[in-house]
Amino acid sequence: MADPALQITTLTKRFGTLTAVDAIDLTVAQGEFVTLLGPSGCGKTTTLNMIAGFVPPDAGSIRLQGRPVESLPPFRRDLGLVFQDYALFPHMTAAENVGFGLRMRRLPREETVRRVAEALDLVQMSGLGERRPSQLSGGQRQRVALARALVIRPAMLLLDEPLSNLDLKLREEMRGEISALQRRLAIATVFVTHDQGEALTMSDRIAVMRAGRIEQIGTPTDIYERPATRFVAGFIGTANMIEDTDGVTVIRPERLRLSSAEHAPPGTRHWPVRVEHVVYIGPRLELRLRATDGTRLQAEMVNDGTAAWSAGDTATAWFRAEDAWAIRTP
Amino acid sequence: MKARRLTPYILIVVPATFLLAFFVIPSAVLLSMSVVQSEDTIPTGNLTLDNYATLLSNRLYLSAILRSFIIGVASGVIVVVLAYPLAYFLVRTTSRWKNLLIALSLAPLLASVIVRTYGWWVVLNREGALNVALRSLGAIDQPLIMLPSTSAIVIGLAHALLPYGVLTIMASLNGLNPNLERAAMSLGAGRVRTFLAVTLPLTAPGILGGFLLTFAIAMSAYATPAILGGPTTEVMATMIRRFMLELLDWSLGSAMGAILLVSAMILLLLTSALGNRQRES
Fold this sequence. Notes:
The complex is a heterodimer of chains A (330) and B (281).
Chain A: E1 6-15, E2 18-28, E3 33-37, H1 44-52, E4 59-64, E5 67-68, E6 79-82, H2 94-104, H3 109-122, H4 138-150, E7 156-160, H5 168-185, E8 189-193, H6 196-202, E9 205-210, E10 213-218, H7 220-225, H8 230-235, E11 240-244, E12 247-251, E13 257-259, E14 269-280, E15 284-291, E16 296-302, E17 314-319, E18 325-328
Parallel strand pairs in A: 3-8, 3-9, 6-7, 7-8
Antiparallel strand pairs in A: 1-2, 1-4, 4-5, 9-10, 11-12, 12-18, 13-17, 14-15, 14-17, 15-16
Chain B: H1 2-34, E1 36-39, E2 42-47, H2 50-57, H3 59-92, H4 98-106, H5 113-124, H6 129-136, H7 150-174, H8 178-186, H9 191-202, H10 204-219, H11 223-228, H12 236-246, H13 250-280
Antiparallel strand pairs in B: 1-2
């Protein structure tokens, strides 16, 4: 297919005097997983709601599989949605929930039954179809919601912070499962989250949003290693931002090295520092450093038994030019 | 420590005393009066079920009992049917007058039942507003006789009790997760199908609650049937007054009161049991 799964052009939404979404452009290719990442109020959910058809845009166009949909109601857009609270129908069983979209499409009974069973199987929920949502755990509800969205074979999948109601362990497990499922079905997906970890691990591309605009769009590597703005550098991961005359130099804590010698390798930038605090993470150590000129820095290292730093130590912090990234302010 | 342990008891003592004094004791007196004979308001000692036999075998009394039920059910149905669209609109409207509209819908609660019922009397009587209007339009030659009638009682009660229906249904609509309707729509359900498959079944407890509340109040209402009804449209409540104050037969009045109390309770229990079963299944 030549058309992208989703093409958004100059999409805009105003609420009173607030411009929630400000003329954004976004293209999602067939089978691509694109994340809208940003703090709350950045416009990511409003964007998703406009794609889904719940919020009418003030300007701009939305094309799904090449077809303009701005004037179509939600029930004609052929999208699979998973909500933050799953929004399972409490008065129906898991199987009835999954079959809802097929019943609305008036599919023959046998086909509905077969496809519901397949969908439940896909999310490893076979055998639990007769349970009510209230009898399911958070993770199981999540799976049913996913099956319900996928069973209608939608043009694309929209996920609205589907992991934020799960506990940490389950969240990481579901990340992997959703990613694997999405790749297997090769279904174009827009995923909304404020969690940078989810964005980095699951996405083909990430659109970082702030105040209604897309600050940067790119692969996780682009976003993390070559941030376009200070906001992106600071929002995704931790960054040492060293002020220069014409912008900032971004150096990630894991690329900042520490040596006990007074001199760093030639050709590197370096500071004499004092270790102020060591945060013990387990597999990693986080070191809060202060340079003699007052600059605060953060270094992170693998806790492999060779690093023996403690608060009060003096050291030299340095980095290689190729490990840093410069953001030039125009 | 000791005071803290006593606190819950102190907290229930006041309402418990109130209920005991004004509900349990009168109900007990009522029930015991209903199973003895009495002469001129003074009970005699003999236990008997004659009072009930009299009430349930006499056509006049039976029709009053039946009419109370019909009025309760009809008022309940009308209130729920009228209140649902109104409550739906009030919950969903994004108008900046929303709060004013809600206040206006509940405003009838501020006027006394007597005033509202006489309002209907002014509209419905032989020389009333409706007859005058219809006659001046040439729609009728002779005035319509709308009072006294069971329909007039139902209209008056449904009007008076509409706010209760609006309140209970609004509460259940407000409690509905808006993402459920969005989910249904994203799965291909149009507005009508979304309403029928999701909104309506999930707000059924509100509908049931509004119906039961209206039913219970309408079935035992006295003022409206007394004003908009007459000798041909007696209900249980007006009958009880007649037994007590005109015929001075307190035992018959008590038996009628007991029938009203018990039948209302059975119906309430049945319906709420039905509601619970539906929620569990």
